[in-house]
Amino acid sequence: MSEGRKRKPNRYTAIIQVVFERHYKNGITEFEFDRSEFKDIALELGIDLPDNLGDLPYSFRYRSELPEIIRATAAPGMEWVIKGAGRARYRFAQVKLNRIIPREELITIKIPDSTPEIIGAYALNDEQALLAKVRYNRLIDIFMGVTAYSLQNHLRTTVKKVGQIEIDEIYVGIDRNGRQYVIPVQAKGGNDKHGAVQTGQDIACCAEKFPNLICRAVSAQFMTRDRIAMFELTINEDEILVVSEKHYQLVPAQAITTSDLLTYQTITG
């Protein structure tokens, strides 16, 4: 592509920019919009509508950065996010800017790899591979200190005042004192971001669907193909906070040395 030609924004970016421009006024920190607006905007711009209208806001909620023209309007230390606001409705809102990335200085704990080789051969994407490795190696149990069982993956449901959501995988668990837990899990590839939106809606879903269980939200992220960062997350006034973080590397059992085991004896917390 020549320097004189600028790449046109993709249709998701073009549509969401118009949505924002229609509603935003200088100084406001949130506003709602309806998915039905996409049709008029696409017609106005002369572009085809996405087949799945819900994928447009979904992509900016979980996968992609909002356009720079939108991000530039956020107050210092804040960022725009898109939240669910009911059936086919959404809310642009400013929340505290907080990027959660694995801490490189944290010790990596070696775990004997129990992933069936055939799973690694046929997993279709990073998210599937990550969820499988977490499940087969019982990383939820190890990280959380509870006995946990996968209840359902890719759970699609609706939550009051939020609308339709999807949880990557949901576990239920029990500890030695009989306390029972519900554990929603986010699976993140190397470039995906941990978001307050998804963590908040996962917690809201668990409070609504499992009111008698203790909710502990987890996010897992590939650092490398066999090195996984695990975070326990919580939400406080729209801010995502890390409760705990551990890094695990899946290795052949014989790769765990006596020196490794002695080091692990000194780890607390």
Task: Describe this entry's structure for a reader.
The radius of gyration is 21 Å and the shape is elongated. Strand 7 (180-188), helix 8 and strand 8 form a beta-alpha-beta unit. Strands 4, 5, 6, 7, 8, 9, 10 and 11 form an eight-stranded mixed beta sheet that branches. A three-stranded antiparallel beta sheet has the order 1-3-2. With 269 residues, the chain is α/β, with parallel strands linked by helices. The termini are far apart. The protein has helices at 11-23, 37-45, 55-63, 68-71, 117-122, 126-136, 139-144, 196-209, 258-264; strands spanning 30-34, 78-84, 89-96, 108-112, 147-159, 163-174, 180-188, 214-215, 217-224, 227-236, 239-251.
Radius of gyration equals 21 Å
Order of SSEs: HEHHHEEEHHHEEEHEEEEH
In percent terms, what proportion of residues is strand? 25-35%
Instruction: Assign a percent range to the helix content.
Output: 25-40%
Total strand count, please? 11
Structural class: alpha/beta
Main sheet: strands, sense, barrel: 8 strands, mixed
Spans where pLDDT lies below 50 across 5 or more residues? 1-8
Q: What is the name of the CATH topology of the largest domain?
A: Trna Endonuclease, Chain: A, domain 1
- Overall body shape: elongated
Q: What is the CATH first-level class name of the largest domain? A: Alpha Beta
Number of helix segments? 9
In whole angstroms, the N-to-C terminal distance is: 53 Å
CATH architecture of the largest domain: 3-Layer(aba) Sandwich
